[in-house]
Design goal:
With about 240 residues, the protein is mostly helical. The protein is about 65% helix and about 0% strand. It has a two-stranded antiparallel ribbon.
């Protein structure tokens, strides 16, 4: 067979001939889809009529698309807001002075409670991703917020947090105070916490509420006046309703 034989086709020509049916099929589908009552034409009409149709008469797929878009936007904004808030809280917590074991920054009765707590947190915060000063600030903030929440809102969660916070503080005072004065320091911590609990737990009663419900017949009382029968009357009429 000679090289100029017209029956001989190259690889490129065969590829082009094989692609012609695919292009033709794609062109046919595109034309049919945009024809009247076609798939793409119907979707375009639904989009065009959406502003005037309102939310209730809008196509379901448009509602789903709009809902997904709004939800994604809210999640994105919420994630950004959380990042900003966490960064601000981190800056606030790390701005406090560093807590060291044995620091005596408090005075008076409060030092009996505060200094053991500071020493305990400083001694047991090694290896944590937060510093001892951050842990101490969190401890103080939790106690203050639970006290205010129990006093103002009387929330069960705030009061439960206050109880757990007080128990943790008393335990830290017991473990971080020297053995010779441990009992007295713990007693002072208990008295201080119970005194503050009169505000955080105000209105809380441990007495169970009882409700009494009595089932019985209903009695209807109709007051009446009985007048004695007068002489000379044939038909006694001595009952008069009280009005």
């Amino acid at each position: 067979m000679t090289p100029n034989d017209p029956r001989t086709t190259s690889g490129t020509d065969r590829t082009t001939n094989n692609q012609h049916p695919l292009l033709a099929a794609a062109r046919t589908w595109w034309t049919t889809a945009w024809a009247k009552d076609g798939f793409l034409h119907a979707r375009w009409e639904e989009v065009r009529r959406a502003p005037g149709a309102g939310w209730h008469n809008m196509a379901d797929w448009l509602k789903a698309t709009a809902g997904i878009a709004v939800f994604s936007l809210v999640v994105l904004l919420f994630a950004s807001a959380v990042d900003v808030l966490l960064d601000a809280v981190h800056r606030l917590l790390t701005a406090v002075p560093e807590v060291r074991v044995g620091d005596s920054t408090s005075t008076g009765v409060w030092a009996t409670i505060d200094n053991p707590v500071r020493s305990y947190l400083a001694a047991h915060s090694a290896g944590l991703p937060i510093s001892a000063s951050t842990a101490y600030t969190l401890w103080q903030t939790t106690g203050l917020l639970s006290l205010i929440g129990g006093l103002v809102t009387r929330s069960t969660g705030a009061r439960l947090t206050w109880v757990c916070w007080g128990a943790a503080g008393i335990a830290m005072v017991w473990m971080a105070t020297p053995e010779t004065s441990r009992t007295v320091a713990t007693a002072i911590a208990v008295l201080a916490w119970t005194t503050a609990s009169t505000l955080a737990l105000r209105g809380l009663s441990l007495r169970p509420s009882s409700f009494t419900h009595v089932d019985g017949p209903q009695v209807t009382v109709q007051p009446q006046i009985h007048i004695p029968a007068q002489p000379g009357t044939s038909t006694p009429d001595n009952v008069r309703p009280l009005r």
